[in-house]
Amino acid sequence: MRAFLWKGQTEGKGAHKEQEAMWIKWINTYRLKDKSIWDIQLRSVDTWTWTEMLKFREILKPHVKWSVGNGVNVNFLHDNWYCMGVLHEIFRRKEVSLLRIEHEDSLAYALRKFHSPRDKHDTDAMNRCRNDMPILSDRADVVCWNGA
């Protein structure tokens, strides 16, 4: 049972098919509900285990970086994919508003908006970021551990 919960199901003649483990499906369905682990609010009714996991986010956050592929799973504003850091920490609220990018927008979706023509309200931070945008590919986005 433990192997199934952590690794998923074994299929045919000893070959493993990569599947999402049962507990990961449960976390995604009941805890995250299509949100990022970084955006979940701690609630007073949360279990001790979940509360402790969420407390570690601030310790882990500087070490988690996205290697951008197609940009579908990367949050434009809240995930650490940009060379200068997390964009919502770089941009002021007014800049985010001027970009017309929503907090839940993926990198792939936001890039279509972000590459719109520059206008007179663009700030230096916005122009620097616009010049450093990644070129998306067909490969999946990958979360990486930066031990530094």
UniProtKB/TrEMBL annotation:
Name of the protein: Uncharacterized protein
Species this protein is from: Lithospermum erythrorhizon
